[in-house]
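WARN retry 2 of 3 for item q-0093 after timeout on previous attempt; input resubmitted unchanged.
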Amino acid sequence: MPQPLILASKSPRRAKILESLGVRFAVAPAGAEEVSIPEQPRETVLRNALAKLRACRASHPGRSILAADTIVWCNGRIYGKPRDAAEAAEFLRELSGVAHTVFTGVAFCGEDGAEQTAVAESTVEFRNFDDAAIADYIARVNPLDRAGAYDIDESGDLLVASLSGEYENVMGLPVEPLRAFLAGCGGADRSGAAR
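OK item q-0093 returned
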């Protein structure tokens, strides 16, 4: 039986997406120095995903590995993970009532080590909300490990007015490029979603 795919991320949302697809995987987060290039959001996520992939491959040679990086981008600014609740509130206040773009860079290698990459983008428009609504949202959802300080899959209806693009991309792992990667390396072992 093929070895499980390695997910180079500790994101529970990425794990949830892989589980929903029935892909067997093991979690092995990889530390890598990340870049932030506000005028180049696609390049930012692509470089960060590749850095994570390569760091993980150094520890797990000969394995199929998946890495990803997600940012929220609006008006030339990158919104990554907030440092604390105050910064999370600041992010949400700035994004209230406006449309922003979620970029996810995905990097994959099969057992042969050949790298494949893709960048997905989705447009999310937020409702208008006040400080009380922001405080309520932060009390419900831990915003500190989420780009842009929000999670579309957890109480996202409190914030999101509309979405154009792939829902899973906003969660942090677009499904379409993932399916193409897995098909290209002979398909995923789908004999159960193991972690």
